[in-house]
Amino acid sequence: MKKITVGAMLLSMMFVGVKAQSLKSPDGKFEMNFQLKGGIPYYNLKYNGAVVVEDSKLGLRLFKDSAIKFASEIAKPDDAKFDLNNGFTKTDEKRDAKNETWQPVLGEKKNYINHYNELAVTLDQASTSRSIVVKFRLFNDGLGFRYEFPQQKNLNYFVIREEDSEIDFPTDMKAWWMVADYDSQEYQYQETKISEIPAKWDKAFDANASQRLVKNAVQSPLMLKKEGKEPLYVNVAEAAVLDYPASHLEVDAQNFKFKTHLTADRQGAKGYIQTPSVTPWRTIIVSPKAEEVMESKMIFNLNEPTKYTDTSYIHPTKYMGVWWEMIIGKSQWAYSTAENVHLDKTDFSKLTPNGKHAANNTKVKEYIDFAAENGFQGLLIEGWNVGWEDWFGHSKEYVFDFITPYPDFDIKMLNDYAHSKGIKLIMHHETSGSATNYERWADKAFELMNKYGYDAVKTGYVGDIIPRGEHHYSQWTINHFYRIAEKANQYKIMVNSHESVRPTGESRTYPNYISAEAARGTEYEAFGGNKPDHQTVLPFTRWMGGSMDYTPGIFQTKLDYYFPGDKRFVKTTLAKQLALYVTMYMPLQMAADLPENYKKHMDAFQFIKDVAADWDDTKILSAEPGDYVITARKAKGTENWFVGGITDENKREYTVDFSFLDKGKKYEVTVYEDGKDADYIDNPQSYNIYKKQITSKSKLNFKMARSGGFAVSVKPVN
Fold this sequence. Notes:
Helices cover 16% and strands 33% of the residues. By secondary structure, it is α+β, with helices and mostly antiparallel strands.
């Protein structure tokens, strides 16, 4: 229980009667109130009359006269007069509303509804002759707010020390969280009460290639649940993180309160601002149903429409890759045995081959053949370009040139061969964190892609960012990610970034930025492992702001198949791997396993061949974070539906009600389910496949094994 002091009670009594500005959602269920208390801005949020967010402070701290003190985090008393968090008077308020329907270029539904009421409050700070605007948008699924800085005499340029937006909850809710880090989101999710976060924080992370942890802070999106007879689900995130650092959430565990913590640069600065400017939106999505939180598109609605004049080149892609065999250690990215190479100096044709280079002509052609035979559109090849011998861990700026292939990779021949089979190769641009080098080479790299017909690139940012001292989520690097997206658009290229910042709805503005990693994906099954509940949490957290390149489809889950005695394994059943293609939205959709493993299970592989990658409709049939997710999706431009269900480490039963299908029509379903003896540890490859006819009145019951699932394709009967 929160501590309520006598002083706090007296303070609250002093402000009884202070005039508040109220805003209601279009359906009237939400109410947001804004007010100044002693010149300090506060807001609160109610749902159906009950308090969801108690009075919470707003504001920012600034550096004095833009003078940055190295690693300075705490405001000094003589700097406080420069802060934008007190001494305000309200001088204006404007109200607006919008109800529009827009179509994403790629999305989970054909139409997204953007319906909100808006309040913009202008605040003047008399002591500095400055003004800011706090803008609130209240939707039928929650609240978004941000700061706006009009251009003015005393606020043209400034540097943010910290943004102090608070979210103060009245109760100790269950939380699904991961540790905050300026450089990585690749951690396991934890499930605790808010009050328990500090006690578990120190054991909630493992090592990463680049790591700058924020003590007792968590990352967003953060998923919360008020338990009891009237449960309430709350999602805390951000939207439209552009020209601004990504934020984390400092935890006040005793008071169930969270405060914004921005990613810093090496000087401790959180953002360099030139007015007019705006911050990202802070978002609070609220519903009594977990399914409605997953269905929310508020984060996308808070992003601006695209300014691209041509999006015709942007399309969903199902692809395979010369990738997993390197992740598990069967092959290598590097071509030679050398340990020290210099681009433009080293003659790679004279180096001794290591014999394990995967991106070679013979192997790539074999992958092309299998991908083409099974209806895929793309093939990713990693390790095709020179420089992998000493690519990581040396803070090497000129590490790749993105245009020179290894001696055993004939780029023209392979592209001609791929195109003859209806396959487009997908380019791989690992930067080793050297963002400056990538920007120097971007035009030449994209020109090469245009020359050979590549229309998609997977970028990577493993390791510490160069320029040195920047972080993966600091303002400079975030600007870099979107500079690359804009540059790629000039060449009609789609981008899939790895080790990048998590998406916050920017696919509406930059639709060629079609996917990202920015979380712990399938590759970690070969590293530290993913817990069986991992895939049931991600749709409530990482997926709230955009699609993820999760790279599912692993059929050979036990790695001792390749390396006898190896104890690593993918912690799902084969049927759950199929279900992930539905429960996870991935317009760039990978079948990640080796062709040899798919050839042994072509009956199950049929679902991966059939499942769509983009959708006209999505229905979350049932979900509970950390436990299970059941999703139905309607394929773009067809009458075909696909259903997927996954569970955590517990066995579960679920009955799918097909009432979402058109009435009066007959459908044929093909069911892929866990076998009766399936188990993710003991018997992961046990599955059962059957067909039957159904209608909208039909119901089918499924028994999911531990970390198991089911997948169903539904097609109309002609």
